[in-house]
């Protein structure tokens, strides 16, 4: 695993952490038609949601910066970012998210129930005066600034790939590194766009509750942005499954995904990878192996 790919693992941890620590409690409360556990679980749920949400958006921001740095010189065989640096960035992401999640507990803002009563988050409607600075800071440093950085980085990568692709047209052959970077760019953009689009309605409703009476928003309306935002954790594996051949192969190798009675196994034998070939008879063994190696890369 290359150092930048560790950020993808870190992003998966944020999605898994949110799903495991938050969703069972919300589902049980919905089943019981009221919030379970009182103020203690409300504080826990709000802290966990804020913590994993900030960790996710900052991880996407760092991932965009790292992708941009790596794409500056795509043809260089040397690693532009070391594994130690990436580990430090991952640790910084969790520390940054923890600090912001603890601010409401320390008195700068506070957590409270959502209007529909089945989950908890920052008490947007109650922070119009005392916690207004916290809300402005939170939206500035954890939504607007990350979005601007992500857009600028991926726009720069797209320009770099455009010129590399245009330069390769003279030789009538697109380098494999350009194809790889183009696929990685597509995956990263979709993951970032999915997170931003999912959380944008929730952010709009939260800002609306600051400048107007939150009771004017029907509970059914406030429920939909919350559910849409929390569903963002399910999109990343789907995006990787659709656009990443390596990820798709790993999923298909899991035993419980096998549809046939034969056990799943990993093999480099050309006969065991016929799904990549049109016909093994019309293609030589050397050519088939080279095609298979290119696909796996």
From TrEMBL:
This protein's UniProt keywords:
Chromophore, Disulfide bond, G-protein coupled receptor, Glycoprotein, Membrane, Photoreceptor protein, Receptor, Retinal protein, Sensory transduction, Transducer, Transmembrane, Transmembrane helix
Q: Mainly localized where?
A: membrane
One GO biological process from the UniProt record? visual perception
The way this protein sits in the membrane is described as: Multi-pass membrane protein
Would you tell me the Gene Ontology cellular component terms?
membrane
Location in or out of the cell: Membrane
Q: Which residues cross the membrane?
A: 12-31, 43-70, 91-111, 131-163, 184-210, 222-243
Q: Does the keyword S-adenosyl-L-methionine apply?
A: no
Q: Which GO terms describe its molecular function?
A: G protein-coupled receptor activity; photoreceptor activity
Boundaries of every G-protein coupled receptors family 1 profile domain copy? 1-240
Asked if the record carries the keyword Transmembrane, the reply is: yes
Annotated coiled-coil positions are: none
Q: Which domain of life is it from?
A: Eukaryota
Q: Name one Pfam family in it.
A: 7tm_1
Report the protein name in the record. Answer: G-protein coupled receptors family 1 profile domain-containing protein
Species the sequence originates in: Perca fluviatilis (European perch)
List the top taxonomic levels of the source. Answer: Eukaryota, Metazoa, Chordata, Craniata, Vertebrata
């Amino acid at each position: 695993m290359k150092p930048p790919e560790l950020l993808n693992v870190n992003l998966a941890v944020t999605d898994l952490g949110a799903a495991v620590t938050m969703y069972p409690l919300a589902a049980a409360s919905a089943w019981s038609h009221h919030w379970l556990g009182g103020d203690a679980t409300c504080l826990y749920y709000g802290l966990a949601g804020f913590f994993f949400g900030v960790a996710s958006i900052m991880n996407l921001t760092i991932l965009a910066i790292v992708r941009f740095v790596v794409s500056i010189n795509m043809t260089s065989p040397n690693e532009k970012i070391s594994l130690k640096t990436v580990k430090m960035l991952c640790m910084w992401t969790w520390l940054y998210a923890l600090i912001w999640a603890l601010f409401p507990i320390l008195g700068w803002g506070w957590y409270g129930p959502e209007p529909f009563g089945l989950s908890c988050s920052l008490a947007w409607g109650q922070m119009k005066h005392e916690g207004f600075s916290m809300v402005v800071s939170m939206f500035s440093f954890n939504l607007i600034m990350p979005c601007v950085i992500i857009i600028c980085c991926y726009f720069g990568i797209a320009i770099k790939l455009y010129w590399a692709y245009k330069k390769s047209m003279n030789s009538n052959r697109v380098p494999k590194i350009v194809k790889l970077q183009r696929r990685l760019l597509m995956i990263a953009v979709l993951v970032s766009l999915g997170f931003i689009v999912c959380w944008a309605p929730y952010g709009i409703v939260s800002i609306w509750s600051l400048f107007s009476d939150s009771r004017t928003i029907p509970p059914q309306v406030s429920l939909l942005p919350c559910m849409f935002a929390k569903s963002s954790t399910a999109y990343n594996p789907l995006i990787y499954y659709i656009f990443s051949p390596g990820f798709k192969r790993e999923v298909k190798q899991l035993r419980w995904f096998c549809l046939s009675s034969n056990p799943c196994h990993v093999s480099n034998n050309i006969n065991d990878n016929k799904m990549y070939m049109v016909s093994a008879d019309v293609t030589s063994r050397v050519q088939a192996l080279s095609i298979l190696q290119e696909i796996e890369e």
